[in-house]
Amino acid sequence: MMITRKALPRRTFLRGVGTAVALPFLDAMTPAMASSQTKAPVRMAFVYVPNGIDMRHWVPAEGKLGELPRILKPMEQFKNEMLIMSNLTHNNGRALLDGAGDHGRCCGAYLTGVQPRKTAVDIKAGISCDQIVANSIGHQTRFPSLEVGLEDARQAGDCDSGYSCAYTNNLAWKSETQPLPPILDPRAMFERLFGRDASLTPAERARQAKYRRSILDFVSSDTRKLQTSLGPTDKRKLDEYLSSIREIERQIERAEKDNARVDPGMEKPYGVPADFAEHFKLMSDMITVAFRADLTRVVTFLVTREGTSRAYREIGISDGHHPLTHHRNDPEMMEKVARINAYHMTQFAAWMEKMKSIKEGDASLLDNSMIVYGAGLADGNRHTHEDLPAMIVGRGGNNFIKGGRRVVYRKETPMCNLFLTMMDRMGVNVEHFGDSTGRLAGVDLG
Fold first, then answer.
1. Which end of the chain is more exposed for a tag (fewer CB within 10 A), N or C?
2. Do 305 and 376 have their domain in common?
């Protein structure tokens, strides 16, 4: 039998006036009779939550996961896809040298493995593990990495100017002295991913928005042509993918209209929702699209800056997050911290549900990902840097990560051992990273 069907190129774009939309992974992108041999790429993301976590409600029993504690409870349906790791430590987050304060150190050291510090003329940290991976494999995607966040310290009004903000506001570091600030505005992120007008000033963007049609309208001709050549499964995938982009557009438009009616009490970037859950959903939805379309394979997600005093009035908490974590064992304050921790986890679980729902061959987008969720502090009251809250969700492709367990490592095991192991999985092999002492036993995770 002669096979003549030509595979659709993996880096296919729907093109229109001033825009290009990348496609998700389709069956038509694999040669005939070779689908079973094609592997989807592995994605890596780091989701960082501030001010530590109430560890009383985080730690499940060792071994196979049974009843999940309160903060992890929203992740119940992902029990088999999650691995809880105990006793991982960031020694360089501690006050070993003159640095940027405890919150600055814990955040600045999180992905770099070195203690951030100030010099007479500059800030200094180290290249972060995400950027080591981006430098090696980033040429394979449109964006070597994406840096995403939900709050700007200077807008929140609770960060000193200068070097300390550089550490608490950034997870990714391209070099010792060059942090990569996260994108905070959903519209700015959308335009970076799908448009070519990110360099316009707000005034120019506003004028353009008056005449702006949906990005998908620009590519409708290409879409119609492509749909005629796809099979039923790929047509469904393409329709779902394009519908998800349209939904993001609608969410952004709704957020902008809502902001015209609701005063959040502080100046916000253009298009940023006042509601935390809506902001989280917008940004995580776009990360999902970027992963699905292979626009990038490396993401850092700063879920509000380290040391934030953000209030969560939407769940009935008007106190600032950071002051609450210094609870001095006051039961009422501790209860509010636990509620904030669980609220963050609820948003994260909704994102994981979306990742799991997207199929890639016989697996899911979540199966082909490694999503780390954690913090640079354990107990926010005492500012402890050992036994940090650390969870990894997803299988890392081909069941590399065996979930459904809590693994307890030796005390003071460097967090960098985990990152070194993850870099290996991304095809980036380095001998040493940060304060690593080797690969993390049990993360190949069988």
1. N
2. yes
CB 29 within 8 A of CB 9: yes
Q: Which of 231, 254, 271 is the last residue of a domain?
A: 271
Print the domain residue range for 205.
1-38+191-271
User: Does residue 162 form part of some domain?
Assistant: yes
Question: Among 30, 23, 25, which Cα is nearest to 8's?
Answer: 30
For the chain, 446 residues long, give each residue's pLDDT as a single digit of tens.
Answer: 233 445 666 666 666 655 566 767 777 776 544 444 468 999 999 999 999 999 999 999 999 999 999 999 999 999 999 999 999 999 888 876 555 678 888 898 999 998 877 654 456 668 999 999 999 999 999 899 999 999 754 444 455 545 567 788 889 998 887 888 999 988 888 878 876 554 456 666 566 555 455 666 766 777 777 888 888 888 887 877 777 777 677 666 655 554 444 332 323 335 678 889 999 998 999 899 899 989 899 999 999 999 899 999 999 999 999 999 999 999 999 999 999 999 999 999 999 999 999 999 889 999 999 999 999 999 999 999 999 999 999 999 988 999 999 999 999 999 999 999 999 999 999 999 999 999 987 655 44
277, part of any domain: no
Q: How many Å apart are CA 10 and CA 13, to the nearest integer?
A: 9
Does one domain contain both 151 and 87? yes
Q: In whole angstroms, what is the distance from residue 287 CA to residue 294 CA?
A: 10
Q: Is residue 407 part of a domain?
A: yes
For residue 285, being part of any structural domain is answered with no
The pTM for the full model equals 0.81
246 and 389, same domain (yes or no): no
Query: DSSP states of 360-398 as a string?
Result: ETTEETTTTEEEEEE-S-S-TTTT--SS--EEEES-TTT
At 85, which CATH number? 3.40.720
Is 263 in the same domain as 409? no
